Amino acid sequence: MTTAATATRGLVEITKVRKSFGATEVLKGVSLTVEPGGVAVIVGPSGSGKSTLLRTINHLEKVDGGFISIDGKLVGYEVRGERLLELREKEILKQRTEIGMVFQNFNLFPHLTALENVAEAPVVAQGRSKEEARRRGLELLDRVGLKDRAGAYPRQLSGGQQQRVAIARALALDPKTLLFDEPTSALDPELVNEVLDVIRELAKSGTTLIIVTHEMGFARDVADTVAFMDEGQIVEQGSPEQIFTNPQEPRTRSFFSKVLEPAFNI
Amino acid sequence: MATDYSSYRVVAAKHPWRWVGTAVVALGVLAVAWSLATNPRWEWGVVAQWFTAQSVINGLLETLKLTAISGILGFVLGFILALMRLSASPLLVSVSWTFSWIFRSTPLLVQMLLWYNLGYLYEKISLGIPFTDVRFFEMQTTTLISQFAAAVLGLTLNQAAYSAEIIRGGILSVDQGQLEAAAALGIPAWRRSTRIVLPQAMRAILPTAFNEIIGLVKGTSIVYVLAYSELFYTVQVIYNRTQQVLPLLLVATLWYVVITSVLSVFQYYIERHYSKGAVRNLPLTPLQKARKFFATHAVANNRARSL
Predict the structure, then answer these.
(1) CA-nearest residue of chain B to A58?
(2) Which of chain A's residues have a Cβ under 8 Å away from the Cβ of B276?
(3) What are the residue ranges of helices labelled H in A59-158?
(4) Cβ–Cβ contact A186 with B under 8 A
(5) pLDDT tens, A37-70?
(6) Coil, strand or helix: which one is A223?
(7) Of the CATH numbers 3.40.50.2300, 3.30.70.330, 1.20.120.1200, 3.40.50.300, which one belongs to the domain with range A1-98+177-266?
(8) Is the ipTM here above 0.95?
């Protein structure tokens, strides 16, 4: 389905990750492996810990237990002998440039144009020249079909266009892995597909994608692996075929019976 | 078939009370203007004579100097205090809080006199390593704290306390998602503050900040207690000599009005600059509006003539 076989970077290994907010444990020992160039889709009811899991991968949330590595390199820590040293801010920022993230609410910088949004991080986080960042930014905007809107401010764009700029912005750092946190949840229904189409293209490009979404048809289409999360745990994972058509766990079945339309639920 | 009204004449709605209100206000404005112009006790001649007198201009320049220096230093220090207040360190937070608390709770006049009389409390001011005898620099306090230094110190520290709160409010008004997105992109902390958060915070900061600066322009008049020859002290000296109290106060007032008006124009354009991206399309500037008005009216007139 994807070119996973040819991709050589972007192996994501999540091992027994735990995270609590106050007294509530939102991640209860989650493990998940995504092969280089693979596409993992995480589904599940709201409050199941999907977004939190995604945010631990680029260290926006610090884990309380377990560890995450990308291409064998620990996220947020350095191995020194038998000890794990917490990385300093500067090194964490450097790691983050290898992990792109696309947010539910786009979070574009409203006072910068589409192109400035895309070209900002490569210059200040990777030290590329402004000229190069601009050129690459235009290329990426072209790739998401927005080259002619390069000079527009986010508020002058539709939701779907904003999210496509946000994807271009994440791609500008040439990340090994891209994280999508419900990328279409804030969009009007007729704008969802233009964003999903861009993600579909990316799925073929050899970048590892980890996607949290409620778009089940899309998930089935694009995923190598589907993980169903509930109450801070991955209840079941497998190929889209397995998970959607033949779920083993009662919780998975009951969830799909609520979200899948009858026609789809073969 | 429905009636076709297209040949009917449209009669605009009438607003008689709007006209009455306008007339009353216009009459009031006219009366005030008339009395200002005709009452000889305003002594406009004296006002005109002193308005551009060298001593008054010197005082004006001192006022501008005080405003500029204390305004800039005050806002820089206020920015640092705001960042301290938002930091994760409890010590920095409490120091910042205490600073604002003290300087907002004491009258500016008292602060000013305190700085000027610092020499009474501490004879010498020195820079060295605390709790040792090492001194890099030592000076008589009275030499170091001139009237000007006391004025700048008092105005700056007081201004910093207020602007810290304004800047903090502005920073808090920026959506948390912006910081998160910037962090996720690996943008360094300092750049996140200056490039992402501050420009967006400016929209909330600017209107109040200009209020503060305008307040500061007139606030500088308080340094007359230090006998510092800014605008207000200068006209006082003059009217004590000439006994033309009201006209000279009017000279000072008019200059304050001029400064404030210029600042208001700056405010308009700076706010407009920072509203880039916040509104879909920038509103026209007064100049652009005027041009558009004349352009469309010229067209209308031409059309009327050709009909």
Answers:
(1) B184
(2) 111, 153
(3) 89-96, 114-126, 130-143
(4) no
(5) 999 999 999 889 999 999 999 999 999 999 999 9
(6) coil
(7) 3.40.50.300
(8) no
